[in-house]
Amino acid sequence: MNLTSLLPLEATSPAHICPFDQACSYLEAAAKELRLDQGLVEILSHPRKVVTVSIPVKLDNGEVRVFAGHRVQHADVLGPYKGGIRYHPAVTLREVSALAMLMTWKCSLLGIPYGGAKGGISIDPKSYSVGELERISRRYISELIKDIGPSVDIPAPDMGTSAREMAWMMDTYSVNVGHAVPGVVTGKPLSIGGSRGREMATGRGVMIIIREALADRGSSLVGVRVAIQGFGNVGSAAAELLYQAGAKIIAVSTGAGGVFCQDGLDIPALKAYAAENRKSVVGFPQAVSISNADLLTLPCDVLIPAALENQITGENVNQVQAQIIAEAANGPVTLEANQLLTARGVTVLPDILANAGGVVVSYLEWVQGLSYLFWDEERVNSEMEHLMVKAYRRVVQQSEVRQVPLRLAAYTLGVGRVAQALTDRGLYP
Question: Counting C-beta atoms within 10 Å of the first and last residue's C-beta, which end of the chain has fewer, N or C?
């Protein structure tokens, strides 16, 4: 079976693990466990639509540059496509395709009526002015105008994008159709139809899943020692919420490096320090410096990879000492590392569950936007927690019934629901 025939090959180093190949491997494992027909697996392994557009933009210095923008729509059998747009130098079509597939399983697992999508532009947003980023964002969404919409495909922020970019994109779409359409994107500012609780949503979801996993071990968040790789929107939110719940955050890091404190970091002080130092935590006076690689191998109870994919691999997995790993990033644990961790009895909370808080609150924002009825933060958080806990309990039950690790249990639930929907709708004989 050729799982990658629709996607161009892209050069990678021998040590690099292709995210699309890894996503297909998880699909195949779930399909084998579910005993799905091979033809059905072939359908699920290919995105329904792959769009690449040219984005010509005049830069501030007068130079005209053409960027390539991607949008991959994996499956819409459960509802409109949903997925983030990322601005990052490492964006490739295969990466975006992998993330679109993962979003399909994530939405299915959480029981929300979406299919998976993902988009991106291979740029470093730090290298462009606000005006340049606005022109890039507006032209990108203009080129996709026929492929998105509140009942078709609803983009959201991702790595390198924020509420600001979503506001530009909503405005561009609205101007093109002639009226305001708050449901076309999520993750917007509150003033134009955003949802309360969205900024902390993914980090809150990570905290909730860790809390539930600890409860199953007869423990709580109080006094638990946590290391967090990545102190961006997700990592910092998770750190803040875990800190408030009584956990000891012993280490955090950004791309520039990290900091460690045996007795636990003062997270409010660290956040203030990072805000004044271009989001870097290096040099925080109440801690010692530590590398990103060393953070992953610290003795701790819970490790949260909240940065990029492929951080825990066959090369460093034997040095990982955490008993629980919560995948706040997408694909931070490779296939090989996952198998070795499972064999050692380490609990890996898979990304399609652990980092689903963001898409859950995006869904709630979409519902509010369509109804033009907006909720307070308490209700948003309550609705999100209900869906996250419910999904976690289903995964644990599936794991126990099938006698499989949590990751495979999560994938069997996500893949199984989509496969059943294809059959029920008559899209597969």
Answer: C
Paired sense of beta strands 115-121 and 64-73, if any: antiparallel
Residue whose tokens read 């990678």: 12
- Among the listed residues 82, 118, 188, 271, the single catalytic one is 118
Whether 258 contacts 279, CB under 8 Å: no
pLDDT digits (tens, 9 = 90+) for 128-179: 999 999 999 999 999 999 999 999 999 999 989 999 999 999 999 999 999 9
Q: pTM for this structure?
A: 0.92
Six-digit token string for 380:
């948003």
Q: Report which DSSP code applies to 275.
A: H
* Average pLDDT of the chain, as a whole number: 93
Across-strand partners of 70?
52, 120
Asked whether the beta carbons of 349 and 210 are under 8 A apart, the reply is yes
Structure tokens at 287: 């801690």
CA 306 to chain centre: 9
Dihedral of CA 150/154/155/157: which sign?
Answer: positive
Q: Among 379, 378, 381, which Cα is nearest to 360's?
A: 381
- The torsion angles phi and psi of 90, rounded to 5 degrees, stand at -90, 5
Provide the 3-class DSSP secondary structure of residue 21. helix
Query: Which residues of 75-152 form beta strands (DSSP E)?
Result: 81-87, 115-121
- Closest by CA to 346, choosing from 387, 306, 305, is 305
- Please answer whether residues 96 and 68 qualify as being in contact, where contact means their C-beta atoms are separated by less than 8 angstroms: no
> Within 10 Å of residue 214's Cβ, how many Cβ atoms?
20
The answer on pLDDT for 1 being more than 50 is no
Question: Confidence band (pLDDT; 50, 70, 90) for 17?
Answer: low
Strands of the sheet with 115-121, listed across from one edge: 49-58, 64-73, 115-121, 81-87, 153-157
What distance in Å separates the CA atoms of residue 352 and residue 15, rounded to the nearest whole number? 24
d(CA 224, CA 424): 45
Query: Which phi and psi angles does 120 have, rounded to 5°?
Result: 180, 160
Res. 14: pLDDT tops 70: no
DSSP 62: S
Paired strand residues for 304:
228
Lowest mean pLDDT among 72-81, 286-295, 389-398: 286-295
How confident is the model over 347-371, as pLDDT tens digits?
Answer: 999 999 999 999 999 999 999 999 9
CB-based contacts of 302, cutoff 8 Å, min separation 6: 210, 214, 224, 225, 226, 227, 247, 322, 323, 324, 325, 326
> Encoding tokens for residue 246?
């009584």
